[in-house]
C-alpha cells in the first residue's frame, strides 16, 4: 500500500508542477494564433494612409512645376511606410522581452547604420566609417551611461531604445559635418598647418583653429535649436507626449532631458571625431598626409 500511495503522491506533485507549464504553453499558443493585434494595427493605419493626401498634393505640384521629383517622393513615402512598419513590429517584440541583450543589439545596429551614413558624408576622410562609428558610439554610450546611473531613465527597452535613437541620429549628423569640415579647412589652409608643424607644433596645436571651426559649425544647429525650443516650434518628443495624453508639464520635463542629452552626446561625438581623424591626416613624424587632401 505504501508504494502505491507514494507513486500517487509523486504523480500528483508532477501534475501540479506541470500545470503552470501547460498553462503557459497554452497562453503562448493562443497568442501565436491570435491575430487581433494585426487587425488593430490595420485599423490604426487608416489615418496614416489618409495623411498621404498631402503627399499626392505635393506630387501634383511637382508634376505641374516640372520639378521631376514625383517618383522620388512616392518612393520616399513607400519606404517610410515599410521601414516604420517593420521597426514597429521589431520594437513591439523587443519591448515584450525581458532581456538587456536586445537593447544592446538594437543600439549597436543603430550605431553601425549611423556610422556608415556619417562616413559616407565624409567619404574623403580615410577610414571615415570607422571614425564616425566609434565617435558616435563613444558619445552616445557615455551620455546614456550617465543618464542611467543618475536614474533619469530606467534601463528598459521602452526608454533606452527611443532615447538612444534620438542621440544616435543627432550625433550622426554632427559627426559627419565635423569630419567633412575639418578635412576641408585643413586642405584650404595646408600652408598654415605645415608652417606650424615646422615650428614644432603638434598636430593638435597646428590644427586648433580648424578643429574649433569644424566643431562649432557642426554643433551650431543643435545649440540654436536648444535656444529656441518651445518658442518657434514644439519638439517631437514633447508633441508626441502631449498628443498621447500626457500633461504639458510632464512633456516639458522630458523634453528638457532630451535637449540636454542631445547636446552632451553631440559634443562628445564631435570632439572624438577630431581626435580620431588625426592618424589619417598626419604621419607619425607629425607631417601632413598630403595624399588625403588631393581630392
TrEMBL record:
<feature type="transmembrane region" description="Helical">
    <location>
        <begin position="130"/>
        <end position="153"/>
    </location>
</feature>
<dbReference type="Pfam" id="PF03649">
    <property type="entry name" value="UPF0014"/>
</dbReference>
<keyword id="KW-0472">Membrane</keyword>
<dbReference type="InterPro" id="IPR005226">
    <property type="entry name" value="UPF0014_fam"/>
</dbReference>
<keyword id="KW-0812">Transmembrane</keyword>
<dbReference type="GO" id="GO:0005886">
    <property type="term" value="C:plasma membrane"/>
</dbReference>
<feature type="transmembrane region" description="Helical">
    <location>
        <begin position="228"/>
        <end position="246"/>
    </location>
</feature>
<dbReference type="GO" id="GO:0010044">
    <property type="term" value="P:response to aluminum ion"/>
</dbReference>
<feature type="transmembrane region" description="Helical">
    <location>
        <begin position="45"/>
        <end position="64"/>
    </location>
</feature>
<keyword id="KW-1133">Transmembrane helix</keyword>
<protein>
    <submittedName>
        <fullName>Uncharacterized protein</fullName>
    </submittedName>
</protein>
<feature type="transmembrane region" description="Helical">
    <location>
        <begin position="76"/>
        <end position="95"/>
    </location>
</feature>
<feature type="transmembrane region" description="Helical">
    <location>
        <begin position="101"/>
        <end position="118"/>
    </location>
</feature>
<feature type="transmembrane region" description="Helical">
    <location>
        <begin position="252"/>
        <end position="278"/>
    </location>
</feature>
<feature type="transmembrane region" description="Helical">
    <location>
        <begin position="159"/>
        <end position="179"/>
    </location>
</feature>
